[in-house]
Design goal:
elongated, 97 residues, alpha+beta
């Protein structure tokens, strides 16, 4: 009697690729923002081909292009944030002298 034949492994599923082109927040152009990552210098660059808006962010070995874009979106939202008059002012730390 012979041995049973081993079942073949299923083929690996292709990994879904993440985008490197995004929509611009300033000029609303579609797929106009390109992200380039310089891993040796640990910097991610972002630039719009239409309005020349640019941004750079520190990256790690795990970072992807979408991370640089999301950092840009966060910084723009932070810069445009205006606290309402009803909200209490942020507590400032007291420096003891």
């Amino acid at each position: 009697m012979g041995r049973r034949r081993a079942a073949a492994k299923p083929p690996a599923k292709p990994r879904q690729k993440l985008d490197t082109m995004f929509n611009c927040l300033f000029c609303s152009s579609l797929k106009a923002v390109e992200v380039k990552m310089v891993r040796l210098e640990k910097i991610g660059f972002l630039k719009c081909r239409v309005c020349s808006a640019n941004f750079s962010s520190a990256i790690t070995y795990l970072s992807e292009a979408v991370d640089v874009y999301s950092d840009w979106v966060d910084k723009c939202a932070e810069a445009n944030y205006e606290p309402e008059a009803d909200e209490p002012a942020a507590k400032k730390s007291k420096v003891s002298e």
